[in-house]
Write a structure and sequence with these properties.
mainly beta, OB fold (Dihydrolipoamide Acetyltransferase, E2P), two-stranded parallel sheet, 8 strands, about 5% helix, disordered C terminus
Length: about 140
């Protein structure tokens, strides 16, 4: 069974932008900044993930979030092609179906292998991605 579900919790990079399409629809675009696990040299790396929505209710929610505030979005990963057939440009983005401001305080875990301390229900610990040896068998 195939599933295309995305959940992002990160910071809004800048105010959302709205663009009118030739069809009359409006697309709202923004980026969510998500931290990766700490780099070996101690520097924190981040990803800036493009997000879009065609839903005016979701767009209204995103417009209420200030840049650098935390936001939680859910949606689906999309690949879109733009331009003439001889010079296509491929873009990947998250098409957001719901969004909400994220109010919890984020903390970095001291030891990823350690159990979370008791009484930490009010905080969200940054999840550290696990290394995947392979996604599919090579034939």
């Amino acid at each position: 069974m195939d599933r295309n579900e995305v959940l992002l919790v990160g910071r809004l990079s800048a105010a959302a932008e709205e663009h009118a399409l030739p069809s009359g629809d409006t697309v709202t675009k923004w980026r969510v900044i998500v931290r990766r696990r700490r780099h070996r040299r101690g520097a924190a790396l981040t990803d800036s993930i493009p997000c879009v929505t065609f839903d005016p209710e979701v767009a209204a929610i995103v417009r209420t979030v200030e840049p650098r505030d935390f936001i939680e979005v859910t949606g689906a990963f999309r690949c879109r092609a733009f331009g003439p057939s001889a010079a296509k440009i491929w873009r990947y983005e998250v098409e957001v179906s719901s969004a909400k401001p994220f109010e919890a305080e984020l903390t970095e875990p001291a030891d990823p292998a350690a159990d979370p301390p008791s009484g930490s229900e009010g905080t969200v610990t940054a999840l550290i991605p696990r290394q995947v040896a392979y996604l599919a068998r090579a034939s």
